[in-house]
Amino acid sequence: MRKQSEINRAIAYLEERNYDPICRIQREVLEEKRSESWVFNRYVRDVPEDERNETLFYAARDAAQFLAGKIGISSICPDLEDEPEEEQELEETITLSLSEYKKLLLRLDRVERRLGLRVGDVAPAPRKDISEAPDELIGQADACRLIGCAKTTIKQWANKGLITRYQKGYNVYYSRRELLGSSVVRDYKDSKSNKE
């Protein structure tokens, strides 16, 4: 609902133009605080089709929408400007030190990587056959314990190509050395240690 001061401002504007039937209708809607449904019933539903006046209906509807806060005052009173919203008036400025700013950027970078938004920054690792694997392979469950993550997390990283998955039949393996050297795994472990 619109503030009474704004409604009074619109009514005063429309009263000066009382010679115009559209302004009279809009002023009536504002003074009586009519809703959009009342306007629809009054100008459309309760009027025979051949007697309907679309111009008056839309003018009254705009006034009702202004009352409901859906449109600004400039929509019904073109010479008046909309008052700034309270949220804009309460705008605050926050000052950060350079070190706080850098920490914030680092955290944002980690979040983007974990969500997969920065895939282009990380060189994607293709799926490889077990024959191409290094010697120190560990199973998926051991890899999850090493990293401290769930199976779904490690599977998502592998599906996105962020870490290399070696497959032999239905079994999945990861290289311990590659996991510990992966930037995604380091970021994940860092974010977990920062939480603790």
Structure description:
Helix content is 55%, strand content 7%. The chain is α+β, with helices and mostly antiparallel strands and 196 residues long. The chain has a 4-stranded mixed beta sheet with strand order 1-3-4-2. The longest helix has 17 residues, at 98-114. The mean pLDDT is 81.
Which structural class should the secondary elements be placed in?
A: alpha+beta
Rg for CA atoms: 32 Å
Gap from first CA to last CA: 47 Å
Q: What fraction of residues sit in β-strands?
A: 5-15%
**Sheet with most strands: strand arrangement:** 1-3-4-2
Rounded mean pLDDT is 81
Can you tell me the residue ranges where pLDDT is under 50 for at least 5 consecutive residues? none
Helix content: 55-70%
- How do the SSEs run, as a string of H and E? HHHHHHEEHHEEHH
- Main beta sheet, described? 4 strands, mixed
**How many beta-strand runs?**
4
The helix count comes to 10
Shape: elongated
